[in-house]
Amino acid sequence: MTFCDPIHSYARANPDALAIVDLESDRRWTYGALNQAVDRLAAWIEGEFGPNSGVRLATLSKNCAEMVILQHAGARAGSIFVPFNWRLASAEIDALAADAEPEIVFHDPEFAPPSAARRAMAVADMLSLGQEGAKPSPDARRPFGDVATFLYTSGTSGRPKGVMLSEENAFWGCANFIYGNDVTMRSVFLCDMPLFHTAGLYAAARSPIQAGATLLISKGFDPVHTLERMTDPALGVTHYFSVPQMAATLWNQPTFAPEKLKNIVSWAIGGAPNPKAQSERFVKAGVRISEGFGMSETGSNFAMPAHDLPTLLRKAGSCGLPLMTVETKIVDDDGKEVPTGERGELLVRGPCVAHGYWKQPDLTAKAFVDGWFVTGDAAMRDEDGFFYIVDRKKDMYISGGENVYPAEVEAVLAELTAIGECAVVGVPDERWGEVGRAYVIPVPGYSITPEEVIAHCTERLAKFKVPKTAIVTDGIPRTASGKVQKHLLRARALEELGLA
What domains can be seen in the chain, in order of their start residue? Predict the structure, then answer.
């Protein structure tokens, strides 16, 4: 395949079908109107930077229709879309901007543009750029396999990683989600997952557009409003994506009533393993919770059969079966495939797998091997072919659906002159799934309190990365070569918390 533009296709085949509703402003686009908006913005981008320029155009914005339109317009104009995570601290956003070097950062009024931004423009002004009726030239578009989007994910070294994704990657990743979650042209998606994440940008927002369905864009997750929208017959929501913590919050709402969710064809769960008990609770109530697995680097890879309630219950805790366009294998430390029922590291291959990491060839070479992406996740496959994510080989933990890498937190702690050594591990938390627990050893002659540790992290890190607790100690377990033995430290933390 050398070309795919679903909006253009549906603008010809079904121009009056409802494509996007921005729920905060109640603005609506049919596929015909959406195609014109994308063309107008693409023509403006081409006029500013030339055809197939490869320039980066970033957003620092909460969910809105403009973000979706900019990504599609950039594909037609030959630029690269870079949605920044607005939840990050300003220093972290500055680091992303310094890495991506965007020509323009489109931002909400509440977010100051990063200092490295060459130009800053209001998101609200985006769709008025250019001339009405303008179209980009036929040669403006980037080749289908060339990089068209950067998605930033934190790195274990503390440096952000820009995952380089092409329109080809997007197409096949979304095709996997469509085929695995019973998506049709009559589907209605509610998207309140952030559009700077793969779950929001691709699974929840791009998939319905690719299928010719309707996308309802919410500014963000709010349990009261989200539940109202999911159960509103006038909206007719059929598909929803959330992390497990969001699902638990919705279940605990006073107005939650499973019978009102009978129109939900598939409630996809990702971002972290969904507790088996939670899956069972929803499925027994008749709610089609379908746990899956995907990553920024690989798109959608696994899904449970949402149409099959008995299997959803019988295989609760599984992330499902491999989707149509991916190959998978589970290997041991020597790279050999492990037998059914044994644990190993999950590898994924297929046209949905990204090109690598922007300006990080060494990390790319380690993670992308002979076409396979090395996930870093430990998994097992049962006798029926269903996969289970049983552990994470990496030290990363997931707090409220957000990935947190201890090395990032440790790098910030190391800024304090009073700290000689430090280590961070993830520990269970009833509200967020996992939270950070920091261990610090003061430099001889210095003192530091747990409150000072937390205060420093709060100033330098996004809220979800700030450790919930800090322990001042005189020892951290290490190997003979000096590496922190995180498994021992995590066991110690669990014992201290009474969870061992």
Answer: 6-381 (3.40.50.12780), 397-496 (3.30.300.30)
Tell me which residue of 411, 400, 423 sits closest to 478, measured CA to CA: 423
Average pLDDT over residues 52-69: 97
CA torsion sign for 190, 90, 244, 363 is positive
List all residues 6 or more positions away from 345 whose beta carbon is below 8 Å from its beta carbon.
330, 331, 332, 333, 374, 375, 376, 377, 378, 379, 393
| 216: its two tokens | 């309802």
- For the ranges 121-130, 252-261, 390-399, 441-450, the maximum mean pLDDT occurs at 121-130
The predicted pLDDT at position 159 comes to 64
* Helices 406-413/450-460 angle, 10° precision: 110
Distance of alpha carbon 247 from alpha carbon 26, whole angstroms: 25
> DSSP secondary-structure letter at 273?
P
Spacing of C-alpha 401 from chain mean position: 9
Do 24 and 219 contact (CB within 8 A), yes or no? Answer: yes
Strands 104-107 and 161-166: unpaired
- pLDDT: is 484 or 61 the higher one? 61
CA-to-CA dists, residue 452 to 280, 457, 467, angstroms: 42, 9, 12
Average pLDDT of the segment spanning 356-366 = 95
Q: Which amino acid is at 83?
A: P
Residue 277 CB contacts under 8 Å (≥ 6 apart), including other chains: none
| Tokens linked to 43 | 């023509």
CA distance 396 to 428: 13
> Taking a C-beta distance cutoff of 8 angstroms, is the pair 325, 172 a contact?
yes
Sign of CA dihedral 165, 169, 173, 175: positive
Query: For the chain, how are helix, strand and coil distributed in percent, rounded to 5?
Result: 30, 25, 40
Distance CA 414, CA 470 (A): 14
CA angle 107, 110, 116 (to 5 degrees): 45
How do 188-191 and 56-60 pair as beta strands? unpaired
**Total Cβ atoms within 10 A of residue 317:** 17
Element (H or E) spanning 205, and its range?
Answer: none
Q: Name the burial class of residue 132, with classes exposed (0-12), middle (13-18) and buried (19+) by CB atoms within 10 angstroms of its CB.
A: exposed
